[in-house]
Amino acid sequence: MRVKFDRDTCVGMYQCVAEWDAFEKNLNDGKADLRGSEEEDEDVFVVEVPDGEEFDAKFAARVCPVDAIEVYDDDGEQVV
User: Fold this and answer.
1) Do 73 and 64 form a contact (C-beta atoms < 8 A)?
2) Model's pTM, two decimal places?
3) Hey, what domains does the chain have and what are their CATH numbers?
4) How confident is the chain (80 residues) per 10-residue block, as mean pLDDT?
């Protein structure tokens, strides 16, 4: 499972930070950062979800008010 995070879309509500510790506040930019991620495209970051953290990753995506977070299963299908 992997997460794709569009940082440009992020508005800094930080709800994802409260739900999954892979996200952290970046108060200088007013946006969240996805720890351990790699930049896939300009301001789009991806990271593999560690075993046991799938629920938290999905919940972080669900609570994002601007849908900046997408979750994909191992087959590349979007689940959130």
Assistant:
1) no
2) 0.95
3) 2-72 (3.30.70.20)
4) 98 98 98 98 97 98 98 97
